[in-house]
UniProtKB/TrEMBL annotation:
<dbReference type="InterPro" id="IPR031105">
    <property type="entry name" value="TRP_plant"/>
</dbReference>
<dbReference type="InterPro" id="IPR001005">
    <property type="entry name" value="SANT/Myb"/>
</dbReference>
<dbReference type="GO" id="GO:0005634">
    <property type="term" value="C:nucleus"/>
</dbReference>
<dbReference type="Pfam" id="PF00249">
    <property type="entry name" value="Myb_DNA-binding"/>
</dbReference>
<dbReference type="InterPro" id="IPR057625">
    <property type="entry name" value="TPR1-6-like_ubiquitin"/>
</dbReference>
<feature type="region of interest" description="Disordered">
    <location>
        <begin position="429"/>
        <end position="451"/>
    </location>
</feature>
<dbReference type="GO" id="GO:0042162">
    <property type="term" value="F:telomeric DNA binding"/>
</dbReference>
<dbReference type="InterPro" id="IPR029071">
    <property type="entry name" value="Ubiquitin-like_domsf"/>
</dbReference>
<feature type="domain" description="Myb-like">
    <location>
        <begin position="490"/>
        <end position="545"/>
    </location>
</feature>
<dbReference type="InterPro" id="IPR017930">
    <property type="entry name" value="Myb_dom"/>
</dbReference>
<keyword id="KW-0539">Nucleus</keyword>
<keyword id="KW-0238">DNA-binding</keyword>
<dbReference type="InterPro" id="IPR009057">
    <property type="entry name" value="Homeodomain-like_sf"/>
</dbReference>
<protein>
    <submittedName>
        <fullName>Telomere repeat-binding 5-like isoform X1</fullName>
    </submittedName>
</protein>
<feature type="domain" description="HTH myb-type">
    <location>
        <begin position="490"/>
        <end position="549"/>
    </location>
</feature>
<dbReference type="Pfam" id="PF23603">
    <property type="entry name" value="Ubiquitin_TPR1"/>
</dbReference>
DNA sequence: GTTAGGG
DNA sequence: CCCTAAC
């Protein structure tokens, strides 16, 4: 994550970088840096802050359930993070490190507009008391003392410890060697932290603290998070160093980072370990290896452990006359398989029954975690060829590639039902080979695969021939095919923040065309930006107007030049006025008529 | 398919 | 960025 420009709000203690929704981005790492020499205590406080921030930032994940902080070596290298729901406790999605004696700071994100408190009140309220940071917006709950640590300044702060410290409304930590304010270090934490702490604490405390909502209005927006959290226990454990020690011989160990080396006897590394197939013949185990053990400085991204039990043989539909011999059937099958494989196969993936289309997304972004049940993931074998071969020379069923039978995009479960209905009459006709047409996933363009209707037809000669479903090239088999309600929730698109130049283009287009003509804006300024829909542009304009109206301190993300924001306001005002005029005019006309 | 607005 | 209503 890029460090943003420094904004000096008068804090000389710590400046907390954004842990923003931007943390959705691939690496999810932030570097936190401290200006103070008293890095130990300071770092602990910062870690607490960071962890809380991680917790409350619902944009990271809807369900943070745990937080941790630890010290990796004496003194200056520490980390903080949180565990999110759906992850194993060994997974660390976010991590922050603290260094000392470096004075790079980054932009903070501010309290939400709905935050009732003024900046001044927070600033004064957040002056760090000797033993704790108090957050008056949630008085009585907000005490968040420094983490205790031993004489070496090294302590693993577990969730339990932390909880105790949270519950401690009266700071009692005598050995918390609070640094005096002498060096100008104000020990103030950023203003927004009051609200964050309030929220985070409420999150941890559960429904019993709903009363705080009135004082922390922003709680409402993330209500669901707190609810989920409150129902959970907090089985925090220090993350294991390595969790993949039981790899079997037949396992294939893959470290997607490709950094560590692996030897069979040294499971602390990781690499491709080509092993013989398991007795099943097609079993593949993808074992993720914690990379952190390879190098203390290496990325500690979460890793995903996948188990692929098997790839099912792609569905083939074969029709042969009853008089055909077994041998000819075998040969026919062989031909079909060979012709498919001849052009190669590639692997498709399904998560919760939903096809994963974007190869560039990370597992994290896609929501694949080690805790995914193996049945949540499906793999398909898909021909890479563009033209599915047919073995019937006079095949009358070969449809043009561009003549799919359109079907409204619908949840896969609906498709399956629909397929089942449509297939009902087909089953009786299904040939002895038992071919069927279930498990057709959505094709890449989002439309469902064509129905097998055409397979009912017969060749002019009345003979039956091997016919492959025209669009079976899209996906041949799914393993396993689990449908859940989650599958109906489509993949969320990858977040792609607007660049300044994009904003510039948007502003220019809206200045020209006005608001309310988003399709035209799209065509004019973003015609070649495939990933920007006119809805996106409309939404971006909405946020731009909002951004322009709030104070610069409250803005997040890549800063938009003030000049652009001014133009946004101007254009917005102008076009709003135009719209109002138009509406008044219309009203008058309608009244006259 | 577009637009507007809430979430 | 998603979802949905309304057109």
């Amino acid at each position: 994550m890029a460090l943003q420009k420094k904004l000096d709000y008068g804090f000389s203690g710590y400046e907390v970088p954004p842990i923003p929704r931007a943390a959705r981005s691939a690496r999810r790492r932030c570097i936190f840096q401290s200006k103070t020499d008293d890095h130990q205590l300071g770092a602990f406080d910062l870690l607490a802050t960071v962890a809380d921030k991680l917790l409350m930032e619902g944009g990271i994940s809807p369900k943070p359930v745990d937080m941790y902080s630890d010290v990796r070596s004496s003194g200056c290298r520490m980390s903080a993070g949180c565990r999110l729901d759906g992850e194993s406790e060994k997974q660390i999605k976010m991590e922050s490190k603290v260094y000392r004696n470096v004075s790079i700071s980054s932009r903070d994100d501010m309290c939400s507009p709905g935050c009732p408190e003024t900046w001044e009140s927070k600033q004064s309220a957040l002056v760090r008391s000797p033993n704790s940071i108090k957050f008056p917006s949630c008085r009585g709950h907000m005490s968040f003392g420094s983490f205790p640590f031993n004489s070496e300044g090294v302590k693993i702060v577990t969730r339990d410890n932390e909880e105790k410290s949270r519950r401690c409304t009266q700071p009692t930590n005598a050995n918390t060697a609070i640094r005096p304010l002498s060096d100008g270090g104000d020990w103030r934490i950023k203003k927004s932290l009051a609200s964050k702490h309030c929220k985070a604490t409420s999150n941890l405390k559960g429904e019993g603290y709903n009363a705080n909502k009135k004082r922390c209005s922003f709680l409402n927006t993330k209500n669901r998070y707190r609810r989920q959290i409150s129902q959970r226990d907090y089985p925090f454990k220090k993350r294991k160093l390595f969790y993949c020690c039981s790899a079997r011989n037949s396992d294939v160990l893959i470290n997607s980072d490709g950094i560590c080396s692996f030897s069979e006897n040294d499971s602390k590394g990781a690499a491709l370990l080509p092993g013989p197939a398991s007795p099943g013949g097609s079993s593949i185990l993808l074992h993720a290896v914690a990379p952190g053990e390879c190098s203390p400085f290496q990325s500690r991204n979460s890793h995903v452990k996948l188990k692929i039990k098997s790839f099912r043989v792609p569905d083939l539909f074969i029709e042969l006359p009853e008089t055909a011999t077994v041998g000819s059937l075998k040969r026919t099958v062989m031909k079909a398989v060979t012709s498919i494989l001849g052009d190669g196969l590639h692997v498709g993936m399904l998560l919760q029954g939903k096809k994963i289309k974007d190869d560039n997304r990370t597992l994290l972004q896609t929501g694949i975690s080690r805790d995914n049940k193996s049945d949540a993931l499906g793999f398909t074998l898909e021909p890479t060829t563009q033209t599915f071969p047919t073995h019937c020379p006079e095949d009358p069923f070969q449809l043009p590639r561009d003549s799919p039978q359109p079907r409204a995009r619908s949840p896969l479960i609906a498709n399956v039902v629909q397929d089942a209905v449509e297939q009902k009459s087909l089953d009786a006709l299904t040939d002895p080979a038992g071919g069927n047409f279930r498990n057709f996933p959505e094709s890449d363009d989002g439309s469902a695969l064509s129905t097998p209707d055409m397979l009912l037809e017969k060749t002019p000669t009345g003979s039956r021939a091997l016919v492959a479903a025209p669009k079976m090239r899209e996906a041949l088999a799914i393993v396993p095919m689990h449908i859940s309600k989650q599958s109906e929730s489509a993949q969320r698109r990858m977040r792609r923040p607007f660049t300044v130049s994009e904003v510039e283009a948007l502003v220019q287009a809206v200045e020209k065309l006005g608001t309310g003509r988003w399709r035209d804006v799209k065509l004019r300024a973003f015609d070649n930006a495939k990933h920007r829909t006119y809805v996106d542009l409309k939404d971006k304009w909405k946020t731009l107007v909002h951004t322009a109206r709030i104070s610069p301190e409250q803005r997040r993300g890549e800063p938009v030049p003030q000049e652009l924001l001014d133009r946004v306001l101007t254009a917005h005002a102008y076009w709003s006025e135009q719209q109002t005029k138009y509406q008044l005019k219309s009203q008058r006309e309608s009244c006259l008529v």
